[in-house]
Design a protein that fits this description.
With 370 residues, this protein is of the alpha/beta class. It has two domains: 167 residues, Glycogen Phosphorylase B (Rossmann fold, 3-Layer(aba) Sandwich), CATH 3.40.50; 173 residues, Glycogen Phosphorylase B (Rossmann fold, 3-Layer(aba) Sandwich), CATH 3.40.50. It is 45% helix and 14% strand. The chain contains 13 helices and twelve strands. A six-stranded parallel β-sheet has the order 9-8-7-10-11-12, with helices on both faces. It has a four-stranded parallel β-sheet with strand order 3-4-5-6, with helices on both faces. α6 crosses α11 and α10 packs across α12.
C-alpha cells in the first residue's frame, strides 16, 4: 500500500500480537474493549435470543465510547473501514453521529435467518461501499439484503517459507495426512471426514490416511442424533469419532496458535463443507504453502479439480476415499498440484496488488463524499 497517500489507524477489541505487527509497519493501533460486536449464531433461535439479551448491556456501555470515537472520526479521518460484518451495530450507531463515509468487509455467508437479514439490511443502509472476499459472499449478501453493491477483492496472502517448522505433535510417518483447521460447526463438514474414514475402514485400509484435526471440537446438546447425545454426556467430536471405532484415522490437536505448522506437516487441507463453499482463509494459506486442497462445491476460483486439489460438486465419501488412496501411492501428483496451487494463489492474492485495490476503493469512497 502506498503509505505516502494514506494514513491508517487500526482499532482492535482486544490486545494481541497483531498490535505489534501493525506497529512494526508504522501503523497506529488502539485497543477498545467495549467496541460493539455482535454475530448471529447458527446454533438455533434460543442461542440467538440469549445473544440478543446479552448484547443489551454492551449497547448501553458502548454509548459513551461511540460518542468519543465519532468525534475522533470527524476530526481526524476521511473513511471508516469495518473489517467484519459483526461490527454492524457499531456502524449503525456511528452513522447517526458522523457524516464520514463507511466501507465494510463481508467475509462470511451466515445462515439465512431473521437476524442475519436484519444484520445485512443494516449494513446496506449504513455503509457506503462493501468489499467481498469472493463473488460467493456478494451473491449471498444479495440474497439476504436484496442487493449487494460493492466490489470483490480477494484476501492477500504471502507465501510462507517452504521449510516452515512442523507441528511437533503430528506423527512423522508415511500416512497421507489431511489437515482440518476449523473448529467444529455442523456446516463445516467435519462429519464428512468421518464418512470418508468409515469407507476406508470398511475396505480394511487403516494405515494409509490420517485426518489431523486442529481447532475447538466441542459439541452442544441441541445437535441432532449421535452428536447431540455425545455432547449431552460431556463429550466432544473426538469422543464421537471414538464411539464409531474410527480413532486410528484421526489425530486431534485442539486449538493451535500456528496453523502453518499443521499445514507444513500435512499433505493436503480438507474443507468438505456442507454448504459446498470451497474458499476461505485456510484454503488460500494452504495453497500458498504448496498444499493441495480437498473440497466440495462448484466455484473454482482457488481450487481447480485435478490441478490444485480435489474439488467435487457433490460429496461422495466413496469417491473421496478412492482419491485419497490413489494419492497415497502417487506423491508426485501431490507435489505437482501443490506447486500449481502456489503459483495460482501468488498471482491472484498478491499483497501489493490487493492492497492497491483496497486503497483505491477507500479513495473512491472519500472522493465521492467530498
Amino acid at each position: 500500500m502506498d503509505r505516502s497517500s494514506v494514513r491508517v489507524k487500526v482499532i482492535c477489541r482486544k490486545q494481541s500480537d497483531i498490535q505489534k505487527k501493525y506497529n512494526a509497519l508504522g501503523i497506529e493501533t488502539a485497543v477498545e474493549p467495549e467496541l460493539l460486536l455482535f454475530s448471529p449464531s447458527e446454533k438455533g433461535w434460543k442461542q440467538n435470543l440469549s445473544l440478543v439479551k446479552n448484547a443489551f448491556p454492551d449497547l448501553i456501555r458502548g454509548h459513551q465510547d461511540s460518542n468519543q470515537l465519532a468525534r475522533e472520526i470527524e476530526n481526524d479521518f476521511d473513511v471508516v473501514h469495518f473489517n467484519h460484518a459483526s461490527l454492524f451495530v457499531l456502524a449503525a450507531r456511528l452513522r447517526k453521529k458522523t457524516g464520514k463515509p463507511f466501507s465494510m468487509h463481508i467475509r462470511t455467508r451466515p445462515e439465512d435467518t431473521v437476524l442475519t437479514r436484519l444484520q445485512s439490511r443494516s449494513i446496506l443502509k449504513n455503509c457506503d461501499k462493501l468489499v467481498y472476499i469472493t463473488e460467493n459472499e456478494q451473491e449471498h449478501f444479495k440474497a439476504l439484503a436484496g442487493k449487494a453493491p460493492g466490489t470483490v477483492i480477494f484476501n492477500p496472502t504471502t507465501s510462507p517459507a517452504q521449510n516452515s517448522s512442523t507441528h511437533p505433535r503430528i506423527p512423522d510417518d508415511r500416512r497421507l495426512k489431511i489437515a482440518s483447521l476449523k473448529s467444529f460447526r455442523p456446516s463445516l463438514g467435519h462429519s464428512r471426514l468421518v464418512e470418508i474414514a468409515q469407507k476406508l475402514s470398511d475396505r480394511g485400509e487403516t494405515d494409509k490416511v490420517l485426518f489431523v484435526m486442529a481447532g475447538d471440537m466441542r459439541l452442544w446438546p441441541s445437535l441432532p442424533g449421535a452428536l447431540g447425545a455425545v455432547a449431552a454426556r460431556g463429550g466432544d467430536f473426538e469422543a464421537y469419532v471414538n464411539d464409531l471405532g474410527l480413532a486410528e484415522f484421526f489425530h486431534f490437536l485442539g486449538w493451535v496458535p500456528d496453523p502453518e505448522q499443521v499445514l507444513s506437516a500435512c499433505d493436503l487441507l480438507a474443507v468438505p463443507s456442507m454448504e459446498n463453499n470451497p474458499w476461505g482463509r485456510d484454503v488460500i494459506e494452504a495453497l500458498s504453502l504448496g498444499k493441495p486442497v480437498l473440497a466440495t462445491g462448484e466455484w473454482d476460483g482457488f481450487i481447480k479439480d485435478g490441478e490444485t486439489g480435489l474439488l467435487a460438486a457433490n460429496f461422495e465419501a466413496e469417491n473421496f476415499a478412492d482419491e485419497l488412496l490413489n494419492l497415497f501411492d502417487d506423491r508426485a501428483k501431490l507435489d505437482y498440484w501443490g506447486e500449481t496451487g502456489r503459483r495460482h494463489i501468488a498471482s491472484i492474492c498478491s499483497p501489493p496488488d490487493r492492497a492497491h485495490d483496497l486503497q483505491e476503493l477507500w479513495h473512491s469512497v472519500a472522493h465521492r463524499q467530498a
